[in-house]
Design goal:
The protein is of the alpha+beta class. Helix content is 18%, strand content 24%. It has a seven-stranded antiparallel sheet with strand order 3-10-7-12-6-4-5. The chain has a three-stranded antiparallel sheet with strand order 9-8-11. The radius of gyration is 18 Å and the shape is globular. The protein starts with a strand and ends in a 24-residue tail after the last helix.
């Protein structure tokens, strides 16, 4: 079932995210994320190793291999940065990569919901502090008409990154709001990434690969989730208190350095801080 969410949720003050008039998934109301049954990733070929990647930076040292883009080109820009602009729906499949990765494409199509951006991310190892510095919200619903489904993101982890976690915070600067979701191979998570600040902490030795797909909320996605034993809360992945303290200090020092550099150039120091407080033409928000 689907219903209209008539309230703001999880965030207060300037960070409040109004969803009035959009269709949302009832299962997402409690926490804003849902973990479903793990996928048997080991049974599939490693299609992501043969994809064509573009050098697109987002939340760390990353590349992306687009499976669906705004108009089917081998690029990763936000759908609103095209002519004509559009919201993050009705993605056009990128033939070259779809031909290389039919199983990944099938997985993206499996929920049956409208697909926007769909891509595989390659994330190189990072520290907890670097992940905190890269926390951001996604501008999923820019140009999304009221009365349609709120756009959320699904993360299907492909590589066996047992030590890696998806970090979620409702308040970027408040560690007490932090959720840490483990991301081993086969993990499947759906997140309201416009409401949550998020980034992945990947302490491994090799790059992490994950299939990320934008879906429109509606009965198709709701049914897919319901059939996979959804969990709307988990036990936080543990973190050493010294690692946490060092990470907070590193992230804050990097934020201050960025703000000072922007201010020195006469630019708004909030630009690029992941908060969407500044929506200048040159800012592109993307996903972890």
């Amino acid at each position: 079932m689907e219903r209209v969410w008539r309230t703001c949720c999880r965030m207060e003050g300037n960070d409040a995210m109004e969803k009035d008039g959009y269709r949302v998934l009832p299962v997402m109301e409690e926490t804003g994320y849902v973990v479903v049954d793990s996928y048997d990733q080991a049974s599939d070929p490693r299609e992501w190793e043969d994809l064509v990647y573009v050098d697109w930076k987002s939340s760390g040292d990353t590349r992306f291999a687009p499976l669906a883009s705004a108009y089917g080109d081998m690029e990763c820009n936000g759908f609103w940065n095209h002519t004509p602009p559009k919201t993050d729906k009705d993605g056009v499949w990128v033939t070259e990569n779809v031909d290389i990765a039919p199983i990944l494409t099938r997985r993206a199509l499996e929920p049956g919901a409208n697909v926007g951006r769909c891509r595989v991310i390659e994330l190189r190892p990072n520290t907890y502090g670097e992940a905190l510095y890269n926390l951001h919200r996604d501008d999923n619903n820019r140009l999304n008409p009221e009365g349609t489904g709120w756009i959320v993101r699904a993360f299907f982890n492909l590589t066996d990154d047992s030590a890696s976690v998806m970090i979620l915070r409702s308040d970027k600067d408040d560690p007490t709001t932090e959720v840490r979701i483990p991301m081993p191979a086969g993990q499947q998570v759906v997140i309201d990434t416009q409401s949550f600040y998020h980034a992945v902490w990947h302490p491994g030795n090799e790059p992490r690969y994950c299939l990320i797909t934008s879906y429109e909320s509606g009965p198709e996605l709701d049914e897919w989730i319901a059939a996979r034993h959804p969990r709307t809360s988990i036990d936080n992945h543990p973190i050493d208190e010294h690692v946490a303290a060092e990470g907070e200090a590193l992230a804050e020092s990097k934020r201050q350095a960025r703000a000072a550099a922007l201010a020195a150039k006469g630019e708004d120091p909030r630009f690029g801080d992941g908060s969407m407080a500044v929506q200048g033409e040159k800012e592109v928000l993307s996903e972890a």
